[in-house]
Task: inverse folding
């Protein structure tokens, strides 16, 4: 009488099927994760673009409202700018919620953010320095530059500071325009923006 003894283990066909199914499942999981990561990066980039657009819109409104008054000058360099404008401040201007003041923007390279502070007239005269707040994060680079007519050279020039150290501006109080360039990185993509804002009172 023969007794059949079945050997333990997998056949070559079973091993091949197992490896094939495992590979299909792994590829499916990888494709899902890759697609999800791509969608997340696009959403994050879209949000960053919206934040940048809001930043430029707000800055444009403030530069439109720049005014001239002794003791309140526009001063800036490539990484920060301070100028007199209409500010929103319900604490110091409870009746209207808006009034004359100064706005200061500073690029904090270490934090990778743009910091903003606004000062009311009373803040300025009493020497108070309100703490700045971050208005735009994840910034890799930011530059301010200032456009003016050099009356000696009779040429229009961009300067990295205001008032300029070189050149004699026709209007020494305000530049004709301020240009802002910023860039930020999301994932492996770098986004760059450049906008120029005219100052109505400079003309």
Result:
């Amino acid at each position: 009488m023969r007794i059949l003894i079945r050997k333990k283990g997998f056949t070559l066909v079973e091993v091949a099927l197992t490896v094939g199914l495992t590979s299909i499942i792994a590829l499916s999981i990888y494709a899902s994760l890759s697609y999800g990561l791509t969608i997340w990066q696009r959403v994050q980039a879209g949000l960053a673009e919206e934040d940048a657009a809001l930043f430029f819109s707000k800055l444009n409104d403030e530069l439109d409202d720049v005014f001239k008054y002794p003791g309140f000058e526009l001063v800036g360099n490539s990484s920060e700018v301070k100028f007199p404008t209409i500010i929103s401040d319900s604490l110091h201007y409870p009746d209207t919620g808006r009034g004359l003041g100064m706005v200061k923007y500073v690029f904090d390279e270490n934090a990778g953010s743009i910091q903003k502070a606004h000062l009311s007239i009373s803040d300025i005269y009493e020497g108070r320095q309100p703490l700045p707040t971050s208005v735009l994060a994840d910034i890799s680079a930011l530059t301010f530059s200032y456009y003016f007519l050099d009356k000696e050279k009779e040429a229009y020039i961009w300067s990295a500071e205001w008032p300029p150290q070189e050149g004699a501006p026709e209007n020494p109080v305000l530049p004709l325009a301020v240009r802002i360039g910023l860039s930020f990185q999301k994932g492996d993509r770098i986004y760059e923006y450049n906008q120029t804002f005219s100052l109505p009172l400079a003309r």
Observations:
- The chain is about 30% helix and 35% strand.
- The chain has a mean pLDDT of 83.
